[in-house]
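[#protein-structures] MJ: dropping Zinc finger MYND domain-containing protein 10 here for a structure pass
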Amino acid sequence: MGDLELLLPGQADVLVRGLRSFPLREMGSGGWNQQHENLEKLNIQAILDATASQGEPIQELLVTHGKIPTLVEELITVELWKQKVFPVLCRLEDFKPQNTFPIYMVVHHEASIINLLETVFFHKEVCESAEDTILDLVDYCHRKLTLLVARSGRGGPPEEEGSQDSTPMQELQKQAELMEFEIALKALSVLRYITDCMDSLSLSTLSRMLRTHNLPCLLVELLEHSPWSRQDGSKLQRFEGGHWQTVAPSEQQKLSKLDGQVWIALYNLLLSPEAQARYCLTSFAKGQLLKLQAFFTDTLLDQLPNLADLQNFLAHLALAETQTPKKDLVLEQIPEIWERLERENRGKWQAIAKHQLRHVFNPSEQDLRLQARRWAETYRLDVLEVVAPERPRCAYCSAEASKRCSRCQKEWYCCRECQVKHWEKHGKACVLAAQGDTAK
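AK: finished. structure tokens for Zinc finger MYND domain-containing protein 10:
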């Protein structure tokens, strides 16, 4: 591992071995919270290892102990919880939490897992170790990218800044919506890494990607809408590092990371021998794919020279006859995690929400103090400052911040005035965090 370590090699091995799937009903419980903290530590350590370029033991441990399928199941479980249980929970009359952080941890769990998968899926052996759950992961990515395209048609992602008059639950729902946007962008990267492994994917997975979901056409729509870019007056902004950032005029022709992921995925899905043998170029597919010709420029080809092969493919496609979909009788595997979880819990959503309201999301002051101490141990500031992609931002106005709360050392502010205005919201969490540090 690198010079800056959150986990020793032996500790990482123990944490990876202990990963398991939790039932929907147990999300947010004590055991679940412990695993969430462990996942965060593995997540941060994996980023540190990748940044240091000194080998990636977290990825190796996940493969060795066969835990990638466990992560995929946990990912889909929390996705289902957010869709089926969280809305019911918010509608319960007696749901008036004094502290929303325990719920935020569950909402954030999906982002933690997809971030870890994005870090480790760069390696082909990780994709192969997913085994049959790669089908479930492909379906998951397709759901996220479909929502991303739909969101761009409704005016793009939510703003980062919320109203200062909003309640804690309203603020949590806004954070969850922004988080959903970021999760979809991570899912795009994971999908691109899966397409790097076209030669080792099963026939069922290839069929799911090319025929069932028609991913090449979906990716064309993503390039057209480019939901991670927007115009703010005369300024071009891109969503990078968790925030909208203004792009300098000299950098505007530079390909963004996300645009690059789409182009590489398209290249793999259209030009790999495995895909060309199975993708049916119907009249609809041909029409969609030929839209890509408008994007080709010398600047694009300078940055991704391999796209010249894709440009030639499109030139031949423009002159080629379209194909009729084949109606072959083929026995294929289908994803089963989402369907199984939904079947097992159908009709129980309200009962699960009420159970979690009473036993999970109503912690005592002592429980919150203990949890605050564990959070402080997990999110070590010296480590986070290395991992953070950019300077911290003010908790009140979102401007770049240089001053940290002297009491809890967790929140950042750009000036004293913002800290005073934010104290009404931050005060209780600040006291708990400070008490947690004192209790160590």
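MJ: nice. The CA atoms of residues 35 and 286 lie 47 Å apart.
AK: one more thing. The mean pLDDT is 85.
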